[in-house]
Amino acid sequence: RRGEAARPLAARAQAAEPGLPARMDTLPEAVLIQILASIPAVELVLVCRLVCCQWKNLVDGAALWILKCQQEGFTGTEPKEEAENWQTFYFLSKRKRNLIKNPCGEEDLEHWGEVENGGDGWKIEDLPGDFGKEFPSDGVHKYFVTSYEWCRKSQVIDLRAEGYWEELLDTTQPKIVVKDWYAGRSDAGCLYQLHVKLLSEHEDVLAEFQSDTIAIPQDNALSHTFSNYGPGARFVCFEHGGQDTLFWKGWYGVRVTNSSVTVEP
């Protein structure tokens, strides 16, 4: 039955190159790898590897995944030669994206929970704003601004809902990289803080990072990487905020934008 389920894929692969022999098992291994590399990765793992021992060995081997990584331009810190590492590298590279929703205030405060809303609360402003600076790169046009008492907001990311399966999280424990950008006004001082936690299914804290309370003279970026955090991570809780130091009514506190949480190879 498994062989029958996969047969349409074999037929598709045969049709991909005119003049192929009728039997796939007569093809040189290098040619078969080229054909298999044109098939979506999920079908390779769930269907193609069930066709026969030869296909299983190729799908479980490194060469096929190295080729798929090359074809799709996945570069960076490449894994060791072990096949499992290359397959994981491919899937993590394919899924890599910012898991924070509405990181730059384009949707007002949508997707953010207000933990603390002191002073006049949170406000969205266009960059650079009064006595501010432009963001270091193109594509970011707004930021969130705090007031004269502490303002904090948070977002919880469900890693499984984002496509990261339990075995991957528990065994491979891919890097979880957190970044945030913050800035102050040139006419007022302000404070900033970042607090990120990895949580279990029952919301136990497995690992956490909390920055110092930072007094801000200028714009800056903060980054932290979680690794070797142990099994059980299912959620990321991202929380940041700040206030001004002069207690002026309005929005003279820290400005934050372009927050990101990524799961990386």
TrEMBL record:
Keywords: Ubl conjugation pathway
Molecular-function GO terms, alphabetical: ubiquitin protein ligase activity
Chloroplast as UniProt keyword: no
Residue span, F-box domain: 21-68
Domain FBA: 89-265
Matching SMART domains: FBA (SM01198), FBOX (SM00256)
Keyword Magnesium attributed: no
GO CC list: cytoplasm; SCF ubiquitin ligase complex
GO biological process: ERAD pathway; glycoprotein catabolic process; SCF-dependent proteasomal ubiquitin-dependent protein catabolic process
PROSITE patterns from the UniProt entry: FBA, FBOX
PANTHER family: F-BOX ONLY PROTEIN 2, F-BOX ONLY PROTEIN 6-LIKE PROTEIN
Name under which the protein is recorded: F-box protein 2
Organism field: Chelonoidis abingdonii (Abingdon island giant tortoise)
Source organism phylogeny: Eukaryota, Metazoa, Chordata, Craniata, Vertebrata
Gene: FBXO2
